[in-house]
Amino acid sequence: MQLVNETNPDAETQAEIRYRQKRFELAEVLRGTETILHLAQKGDWEAVEELERMRKSDIAVCFSGLDVLEMPLLKEALGTLASMNDQIMELVAQARQESLQACDELRKARQATNDYQAQHGTGELAAY
Q1: For 1-128, where are the E strands, in sequence order?
Q2: Could you read off the pLDDT of 22-80 as tens digits, one per residue?
Q3: Is the pLDDT of residue 7 over 70?
Q4: Distance between CA atoms of 61 and 67, rounded to whole angstroms?
Q5: Under CATH, which architecture does the 11-119 domain have?
Q6: C-alpha 117: how far from chain center
Q7: How many angstroms separate the Cα of 42 from the Cα of each of 4, 25, 82, 94?
Q8: Each residue of 29-44: b (16+ CB within 10 Å) or e?
Q9: What residue ranges do the domains of the chain occupy?
Q10: What Å distances lie between residue 115 and 101, 105, 127, 128, CA to CA?
Q11: Cβ(74)–Cβ(62) under 8 Å?
């Protein structure tokens, strides 16, 4: 029977363990961001909002206590994260613009209906 070494891992082993943990956390953030991007592309804004709240805490955990010198993949991962965030923001802006257009079209249609009814004596619709 072999005894298990009960001493603490050396600094190099600890650094490797920490590096792997941070790498895993970063991969989770990237996967979550990718999921958010796909949901945004589908227009599932409720799911986007819910996952974004969770992602914020994941990002905080991922980047807490981060030593840039021991994270050579950090630059690439941050570039990917920023790119996906830009795409998400573009989709949000586009959806917002489409919503504003739909509201404006609805307002114009209601006004036209009210104008028609006012001219023909049928009364005015309630304004929403």
Answers
A1: none
A2: 888 888 999 999 999 999 999 999 999 999 999 988 888 887 776 655 566 677 788 88
A3: no
A4: 13
A5: Up-down Bundle (1.20)
A6: 46
A7: 53, 26, 20, 12
A8: bbebbeebbebbeeee
A9: 11-119
A10: 21, 15, 12, 15
A11: no
